[in-house]
Design goal:
Layout (H helix, E strand, L loop, with lengths): L10 E6 L3 H11 L5 E7 L2 H11 L3 E4 L9 H11 L3 E6 L4 H9 L4 E4 L4 H12 L7 H12 L7 H11 L4 H8 L3 H15 L4 H10 L5
Length: 214
């Protein structure tokens, strides 16, 4: 008589969210699934990186906004780069810049907190197997961006974007390009509008994704 196949090991999950109440809710929610095992909780990006290195979870459930210190994108980059776990982003933010930065950092999936529990469970199991899972609104944004031709930037806007990618501030950019700070701010506003972002980091991330930087 053939012995029964052994039960697969539970998916080991590390939670990273700076809100204690959110972590408690996730802990209770995932605890209802026998094949999902929360092995640790982190309240900051630095803590998530350290715990991932120590625990080697199958999946790190990562929020993007983590208060002081490194954000969820940088934590994702460090965890994926070290090979200490796959990262599934779980956040309320679905802007093009956030999605681009997270996926560019190596996130296996991108889920919104408004998803039903069943969708979350499925996404965690998929992430553990290395399969990509995107919330429907996120997938729609990704597809829309792929179908949309890249924006046209003027030479001056490209110059400013290039300086921005080097981490320069408005005053430094103005000095480097021999223009006023007011002119830099005006061009930055136009760049943000064209790229559909509202932060400097978002502009650089989208510019890199669409290869707008030389």
């Amino acid at each position: 008589m053939t012995p029964p196949a052994p039960e697969p090991a539970p998916v080991r999950v590390l939670l990273c969210d700076d809100h204690v109440v959110v972590r408690a809710g996730l802990l209770a929610l995932l605890g209802s699934e026998p094949d999902l095992d929360v092995v640790g909780e982190a309240g900051s990006g630095e803590e998530a990186v350290a715990l991932a290195a120590k625990l080697s979870p199958d999946v790190v459930l990562m929020d993007l906004q983590l208060g002081a210190g490194i954000d969820g994108v940088e934590a994702t980059r460090l965890i994926v780069g070290a090979g200490t776990g796959r990262v599934l982003v779980l956040t309320t933010y679905d802007t093009d810049a956030d999605i681009t930065r997270a996926i560019g950092a190596g996130a296996t999936g991108y889920l919104l907190k408004a998803e039903r529990p069943e969708e979350l469970f499925t996404a965690i199991r998929s992430a553990a197997l290395g399969r990509t899972t995107l919330s429907a609104p996120v997938a729609d944004r990704v597809m829309a961006r792929m179908r949309t031709p890249p924006p046209t930037l003027t030479d001056r806007e490209r110059d400013i974007l290039g300086q921005l990618s080097r981490g320069l501030g408005n005053r430094e950019i103005a000095r480097a390009l021999f223009i006023s700070e007011a002119t830099v701010k005006t061009h930055l506003g136009r760049i943000y509008d064209k790229l559909g972002v509202d932060t400097r980091a978002g502009a650089v991330a989208v510019a890199k994704e669409q290869r707008l930087l030389s």
